[in-house]
Amino acid sequence: MVMGNEVPNKLEWRINVPDGTSETLQPESGLVYRIWMGLRGLLGEFILKIWKFLEKARNIAVAEPKKVIHCLKVGVALSIVSLFYYMRPLYEGVGGNAMWAIMTVVVVFENTPGATLYKCINRAIGTFLAGSLGVGVHWVASHSGHQLEPIILGISVFVLASAATFSRFVPSVKARFDYGVVIFILTFSLVSVSGYRVDDLIDIAHQRLSTIAIGASLCILISMLFYPIWAGEELHNLIHRNLEKLADALDGCVAGYFTDSSAGDSCKKMEGYKSVLNSKAAEDSMAGFARWEPAHGRFNFRHPWKQYLKVGASLRSCAYCIETLNGCINSEIQAPEHLKRHLSDVCITLSSHASRILKELAIAVKTMRKSSKIDFSIGEMQYAVQELQNALESLPSHPFAMPSSTSGGDAKTESIRKTATPSVMEILPLATLVSMLTETAARIEEIAEEVNELARLADFKPPASKKANQSQPSNKVDETNEEGTKGLG
Amino acid sequence: MVMGNEVPNKLEWRINVPDGTSETLQPESGLVYRIWMGLRGLLGEFILKIWKFLEKARNIAVAEPKKVIHCLKVGVALSIVSLFYYMRPLYEGVGGNAMWAIMTVVVVFENTPGATLYKCINRAIGTFLAGSLGVGVHWVASHSGHQLEPIILGISVFVLASAATFSRFVPSVKARFDYGVVIFILTFSLVSVSGYRVDDLIDIAHQRLSTIAIGASLCILISMLFYPIWAGEELHNLIHRNLEKLADALDGCVAGYFTDSSAGDSCKKMEGYKSVLNSKAAEDSMAGFARWEPAHGRFNFRHPWKQYLKVGASLRSCAYCIETLNGCINSEIQAPEHLKRHLSDVCITLSSHASRILKELAIAVKTMRKSSKIDFSIGEMQYAVQELQNALESLPSHPFAMPSSTSGGDAKTESIRKTATPSVMEILPLATLVSMLTETAARIEEIAEEVNELARLADFKPPASKKANQSQPSNKVDETNEEGTKGLG
To answer: Cys staple from B106: which of A4, A186, B144, B155, with CB 3.0 to 4.6 Å?
Structure first.
């Protein structure tokens, strides 16, 4: 910025920096100066980038302190194993076996004990199988003459590596033994090609296995004993958080449509369901790791993790429905206000019943305790669906004649208005809303079924019985004193 | 099965095997026999399992021969590198550097050149950075006395390992440098803890880097030169296949609703869209690897792979809509036949326009050539949406009053029907269908926009101009000779 208040003798560029200082730019300083300035600019940009990166990292750390703990655990494990081998150089430096312990820790230590165990067990099995096979092939090759030896070795490596690589494409192998197969290929190639005699090999194998065992057991111990982040528990939490997110989204969506006021607040809540849409990959991997975890907390060794995947799938199916519902009610065609008012209460009642069911299911999953009210709530929701359909059928034939009970089309007074009965296009958005809510309710029932199945398989505790078990859901809801349905009766 | 035709002297169990032989079960043969039978049963089961596994593998191989080729490539690369080091034992066996070449090949060789390059470059950068840093720390530690040395080493390993592990949680690092960070941690620990002098270390580093370079370049060459499976091309194919799947699903869904006949055939087609729902993870990883690939085939180095992700997202959003549509029209409440007939033609016209657009987009992406008709087709689709809404508005007020010329429901004889005007509940499924189709059409327009953006960014070829460019989509469709819309006009 050119400074105007102090008239300079010659043309001069000055930069005003926000902190009050100002700096004169000297045009005469030539190439070196310009390079220096360019470098300084680059450096500034670089520092800014690093600064932003650190800020992002800090946000992650604040949001999920578990991740920081995991990092510290990795640091501790690695320091221990490094120093152990540094202090006791029984083996010969990096080239020797110490390397294998360090490598094991680096490669095997994962975020969750399940993943760590999966890798350790896979590594052990893969190394053992490949080692034995490699020693066998090595023995055969070394006893079949100098000419045949490389041919046998080459062919065996080619065949086994190809076959093992292919097996990684088979889904069942991929899910459980992917890492083991990689280790198998690695170990087999190393052992069969090595120039050692079989006696030496067995000695080396013994040393190496014991080193790997030390590294692996250190990893397992540290990952399980200090602030473990169990994959199973993460999956469990993910599922009940997703249930809550759906409940919020459904509430926000319907309330937002009918009130138009709570835009800011409900929008944020509603965004939650979007993460449900894409949660499949995370659920699959967590369920895969959870299978390897020992009993911990409230989960037994054979906890039905697969059922969580089914619950997850039904949640996603419901999320698709809410996504579409959201799209439809934000579309151009809008229903006239008086029709919206007519359905407002029933819709909100239905959505609140539906989201209450989701919340109850979330609590049931969270506490691992069967819900006493769930059947009853589903009955209420079915009743609300029926009410909603009735309300739609009894849509007012004109804006003011808000009739008491029966279904539409009496239309006796109005003759001046051009739309005597609401046109189909006016009903369209509401009809869609009703259909989608009905469909959502149906999918919520599916979720409830899957959660019930989960409760059965995982032996959820019986409900805390503060009142007698209401076992007749049925349609007799209007006899009860639920204010939601009473308002409609 | 007890044989009835030859009366036995004593009670005897016989098994008839389908190939005609029969076998007498001898009850007296005791424990050994039973164990033997049990073992044989287990063995049979085991063989059956293996057989099934092989069958599954065969199916995969037949369905995707590319995977088999990849496996053979891994086998070849591994055999070459193994034999190379076996034939020229310049280094000292397995413990030495040959190991690093084999390990590099096993760990780095991936399905696509992009993934292989990603791992190679990451490995190189990670090794180099960590190596230099490790040598530095090692030098400092070894010059600071016997007491301080382990402390400095331990702290530096702890700090760097923790920080590096944490950086893997930052999304931008995770996407590009995840593997490099692992290698960084590994190399740094190995180098800094090693008991070698700095001179030795540099020597070792030189040898090791050259070995790794040989392994890595072998992998890159083999994966790029022989039947490469480019990640970018896979992503490209996935996107246009998904476009086709959505087109089929939409067609099948609407046609299935109105005709009820093509259940078997259309069901299979419709299942396709389900894979679109969960394609996010695959798309993300392929786009991540595609970034590393050099120019190949029709794709430049800076091909806009990120735009493919946006197209994929819009495809998924449309797939959610179709999923819900599918759920809604399969629900219990069904519209009466005469109303369905009234809307049948317009709905099918709209869905065929919509699916034609999807197919055109698929062809445009596939051939990387802008479509000349796409704007025109979108105009047609918008017109069809309008027609559909008109048709809904003009729903017959009673079953027989079917105006002049157009589609179905002539049925003029029956006059005793109880429903004069269709009730809202009867319209409900159709209204939903109309809304959902409208919403689907809107989302298809979004897809078209994203594909247009892709065409712009990726410099798609101009359309093959066999006729003049139709640049007025507008609503003048009825002037054209498209048979689809003419039937409605």
So the answer is: A186
